[in-house]
Every structure is written in structure tokens, then in C-alpha cells.
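C-alpha cells incoming
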């Protein structure tokens, strides 16, 4: 908020943050710059994913045909999956199919990889999605409270909580939650999964513990970073000027200070998204859920390379998409900070 903005507020007219003339151009530049970074990252990541599968030396022929496989049978199976072609041609074919939405078929079940991933993705998305919501709600709430009551007992209590929560691995929190709410109190089930459209209450009771365990670190980091940003922002001159002109503290905090001070929290959120995806794999194991991560782990143990490659590609796309959203959010939420800098 500039001085002109504050003076306009003092006239008694509706106080609103003006949209700079170049805002749309700035947003377009941010999107273009992000895409120019994301595309090479995607290409390199998918290339590494393919080469890892090719370098593994795994071959479906032995598993499909058994120990009595003849050379003719092995050659036929390799030709069926395109493994008789040079590696570079295999990569070109794989990349072309992937860009058209075809992730191939499982070597052993012959089921399309995209279908297998689609069946399991809802489980991992439920865990990571609910964990993200909990992390955002509690992280923002605690961060705002700690900044508003800076130096108070509440601030010190929140700081102590975030310091402890950030050091606890999700699997340790999971064990504690299971012991208390499943074994001790018998309030929540400790294993299994039910789709939300089948029984929402049961789905929520199954998802809530892994989501809480996974969100602890997110809550702690967002709260700490948001407190840091807000404390610095609330000391700015424009906040003092707004107070003098009678603008309400809630409006100053939520409309202006929170918008300009959210940069550190948004940055840490972008870094936490891959952590949520990886943590969901651990949670699926802890709570016996048939999710995306367990599909990848089981397929790796069986040597089903197409499924492993497909799950990695989906994870890469999801992480890159979320980072694009975070970058755009930063450009939209912090125009005043950019102008001031």
C-alpha cells in the first residue's frame, strides 16, 4: 500500500488496493518465465526416469515365460513391448505415447498403467490433500496469532510448538496417533480405505490420522515463516500511517500486511509439496492403504518398470504444476512488495 493509497483512505471513500496498470503484464511474465523453467525440468526429469528403467536391465520375458522360456519366446515378448529397439528409439516412442496420455501397460498384468494409477491416486490425493488443508489452516492461523501477539506467552507457546513439531518424523507421529486414538480410545480405525463417495464419514475417519501426521511439519514451517513475514510487515511505515488514519486493525492485517508478508510462507509451501507426496507413501504403508506410493513400491519390487516410470512421471507433473501455481500466487499476492523493492 503506497502513501497515496493511505491518503485516499483518509477521505472517507472505500479503501481498496489499486491494481497497477502493468499487473496483467507482470503476471504474464511470471507465467512465461515459470513455463520456460518447467519445460526443461520436465524433459530432463522424464529422461532420467526413462534411463533409470533402461539401465535397470529388467526384462519381462523371464517373469512372463518362466524358466522354460525359449529364445524365440523371449524375442517375441521383447518385440511385444518394444524392447528389441535401440534405447533412443524406445525413449522417443515412450515420450510420444506419454505426451498423448498413454503411459504404457504393465509388463505382467497387461493392464494400462494410467488405469492402475487412476485407481490408486485417489488414496494418495486424499492423504496429501487433507494434510495440505490442515497445514494451511493451522499454519496460517498460528502464524497470524504469533505475529499479532508478538512477545506474549501465546507467541512463545506457538514458537515452542513449531520447534518441536518440525523435528518429529511423520511415522513417529503416526505411531503416537494410532496408540492414542485407535488402541487406547478406540475412536478411529487404524487401517484401510473407503472412497468418500461410498461413505464420507468412514473415509474421513480413515484419512484424518495419516493427514494429521503428515501435516505437522507443514503447520510448523508455514506458521514460523508467516510469523516472520508478518512481524516485518507490521513494522512498515504504511501500517503506522494506516493506523493514524483510523483504518481498522483487521483490515490492515488481513487485507494488506498478510498479503505483503506471505512471501516466505508461500515459498516454503512450494518446497513442502514434494514432501507431502513422498510422505503419503510412508503413510500408506503405516495405515495399510492401497495408494499411489504402494503401487510404485510393489511394482519396483516386482520389476514392473512401466508402472514405476508412470508413477514417477505423474509425481513430476504434479510437483511442477503445484510450483507453477505457487509462483503465480506469489506474483498476485505481493504486488505492493515488488513495487516497494
Amino acid at each position: 500500500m503506497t502513501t497515496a493509497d493511505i491518503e485516499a483512505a483518509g477521505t472517507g471513500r472505500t479503501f481498496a488496493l489499486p491494481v497497477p496498470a502493468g499487473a496483467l503484464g507482470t503476471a504474464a511474465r511470471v507465467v512465461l518465465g515459470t513455463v520456460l523453467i518447467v519445460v526443461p525440468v520436465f524433459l530432463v526429469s522424464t529422461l532420467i526416469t526413462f534411463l533409470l528403467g533402461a539401465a535397470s536391465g529388467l526384462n519381462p520375458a523371464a517373469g512372463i515365460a518362466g524358466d522354460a522360456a525359449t529364445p524365440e519366446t523371449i524375442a517375441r515378448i521383447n518385440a511385444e513391448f518394444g524392447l528389441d529397439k535401440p534405447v533412443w528409439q524406445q525413449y522417443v516412442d515412450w515420450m510420444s505415447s506419454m505426451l498423448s496420455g498413454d503411459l504404457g501397460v504393465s509388463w505382467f498384468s497387461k493392464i494400462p498403467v494410467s488405469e492402475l494409477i487412476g485407481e490408486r491416486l485417489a488414496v494418495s490425493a486424499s492423504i496429501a490433500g487433507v494434510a495440505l488443508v490442515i497445514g494451511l489452516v493451522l499454519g496460517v492461523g498460528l502464524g497470524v496469532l504469533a505475529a499479532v501477539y508478538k512477545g506474549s506467552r501465546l507467541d512463545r507457546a506457538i514458537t515452542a510448538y513449531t520447534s518441536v513439531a518440525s523435528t518429529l518424523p511423520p511415522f513417529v507421529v503416526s505411531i503416537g496417533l494410532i496408540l492414542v486414538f485407535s488402541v487406547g480410545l478406540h475412536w478411529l480405525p487404524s487401517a484401510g480405505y473407503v472412497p468418500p463417495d461410498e461413505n464420507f464419514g468412514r473415509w474421513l475417519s480413515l484419512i484424518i490420522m495419516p493427514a494429521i501426521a503428515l501435516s505437522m511439519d507443514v503447520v510448523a514451517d508455514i506458521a514460523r515463516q508467516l510469523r516472520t513475514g508478518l512481524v516485518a510487515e507490521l513494522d512498515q511505515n504504511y501500517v503506522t500511517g494506516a493506523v493514524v488514519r483510523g483504518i481498522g486493525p483487521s483490515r490492515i492485517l488481513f487485507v494488506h500486511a498478510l498479503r505483503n508478508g506471505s512471501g516466505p510462507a508461500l515459498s516454503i509451501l512450494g518446497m513442502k509439496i514434494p514432501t507431502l507426496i513422498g510422505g503419503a507413501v510412508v503413510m500408506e504403508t503405516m495405515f495399510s492403504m492401497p495408494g499411489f506410493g504402494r503401487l510404485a513400491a510393489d511394482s519396483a519390487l516386482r520389476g514392473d518398470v512401466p508402472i514405476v516410470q508412470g508413477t514417477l512421471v505423474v509425481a513430476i507433473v504434479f510437483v511442477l504444476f503445484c510450483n507453477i501455481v505457487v509462483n503465480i500466487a506469489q506474483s498476485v499476492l505481493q504486488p505492493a512488495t515488488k513495487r516497494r523493492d
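note: The radius of gyration is 25 Å.
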